Amino acid sequence: MSRQQQQPQARQRQKRDPLGVEDQARLKERLNASYAPDILSIARHFGEQPSARSARVVDIDSSGITIEWQWTEVSEAKPSTDDMRFAFREVTGAGSVLQEVSSLASEAHRALGLPNEPQLTVDKKEVDAKSLVDFSFKLPGVLPMAGVLLGLCLVGYLALVSEVHPGLVFMRRLISQTTCYHILVTTLIVHALEAGAVYAFCYLLKTIQPQQMNTENQIKWTIGGAVFGIFCLHDFISRVRRQFMLAGAR
Fold first, then answer.
1. Gene3D superfamilies under this entry (predicted)?
2. Residue ranges of domains in the chain
3. Which CATH entry fits the domain spanning 3-131: 3.30.160.100, 3.20.20.70, 3.20.180.10, 3.40.50.1970?
4. Would the pTM count as exceeding 0.85?
5. Of 31, 44, 23, 41, nearest to 91 (Cα)?
6. 18-22, 51-55, 227-231 — which is least confidently predicted?
7. What is the DSSP letter of 166?
């Protein structure tokens, strides 16, 4: 392939890469300067070279990272050098690249029997803790709760009781029993759908980020959505939107 053909393809790959040249350079410098022991652990484990004495990142982009390490054989005076390319899953930016490297370092530490977590993993957890929204359950206000419960009880009473209390006869004249029954059924269906959606999202969140969601809060949010509907879900949806905004800003 001619050089004229290679250059457009190289520019096209660079354009598609979510990591720009400056981002790649910053990541490489940061990993080599601040997390050299973690990079060395990756080289020792995955490179099957426990005697490696130094390692560094020589190339990094959204597709993977290349690590080079040195070691000295007993029978040789000069150090030997080797390198390995580690492929990433699909990444969207610097944060997800650091997460990939953190996962490699954590696996290497466990395999090597090192007692402490990699520094990169520790730092990543601290950053994540600041950018993760708290999904602890919170009841809506007293007035919304009272209004919803009173409304459900009233509609249910008018829908299921033919001879209503004399004080509610005027409401029966305004809304027939059949209409109240349809309102009750529709409300219950909507609340059930809301509860199902909340349960599914909480389950997904618990799987991806267990530090954000546990079974207790999942049950509370589901029951809250089933009983109080949008008055409970408004807070939940606001937290979800805030989490997506924080994730997009990382």
1. PNP-oxidase-like (3.20.180.10)
2. 3-131, 142-249
3. 3.20.180.10
4. no
5. 23
6. 18-22
7. G
